[in-house]
Design a protein that fits this description.
Length: 202
């Protein structure tokens, strides 16, 4: 399937709706449960997606259009959400993500990107040269990757309860994507800070 910006927008505009439908009003056991040591929970994924909306996708699109390969993208901090989101409720984060995504897609549409624009190149700090088409396709795949990650984390909560059906459920057998040591340390520190803040509030 070749990249098509109109088709890409169909997915990107639906992600906030999917997240709201899936996560709104759920108990904390669903929101904060992960699928193994040093893995993301749905709450972590939500914070991570917000970071992307604030510091990644549109910023890199503009960097390509304005600078080409002469100025590399700023490094993306994929664990920034541990400091920004820890101790918060999921509901306002869902709303924040929806607002940020809507604003970014509105900005993307105003660019009226043509095929020639999609071929323009930028410089990733570790991957080297990438095209604008690569970046936009990655935005879509990144959303879908993390929606699958949320589903895996939620399914994992019943991994013992499904009994003999476990072997039929690929979501419970597929490999876990784990954080780096730095990410795991930052998560522990954020949890400790939130716990101390809650203890102080009592």
């Amino acid at each position: 399937m070749k990249f098509d910006i109109a088709q890409a927008l169909q997915v990107l505009e639906r992600t906030p709706v999917v997240l709201r439908s899936l996560l709104s009003g759920l108990d904390d056991a669903w929101i904060h449960g992960n699928y193994g040591e040093n893995t993301f929970s749905p709450f972590d994924v939500l914070g991570h997606l917000i970071t992307g909306e604030r510091t990644d996708w549109m910023m890199r699109i503009r960097r390509i259009l304005e600078c080409g390969t002469t100025r590399p993208f700023d490094p993306y901090d994929r664990y920034a959400h541990f400091e920004r989101s820890s101790g918060r409720d999921a509901a306002p984060l869902l709303e924040q993500f929806a607002q940020l995504r809507a604003a970014n897609l509105a900005a993307l549409r105003t660019l009226s990107l043509a095929d020639a624009d999609l071929a323009r190149r930028g410089m990733h700090p570790s991957l080297g040269e990438v095209t604008l088409r690569n970046l936009l396709a990655t935005w879509v795949a990144h959303d879908l990757n993390h929606l699958a990650q949320i589903a895996k984390a939620m399914a994992w909560q019943y991994r013992e309860e499904v009994g003999p059906w476990h072997d039929y459920l690929g979501i419970l057998r597929s490999p876990a994507t784990t954080m780096s040591d730095d990410g795991a340390a930052r998560r522990r520190a954020a949890i400790d800070r939130a716990r101390r803040a809650n203890d102080g509030a009592v």
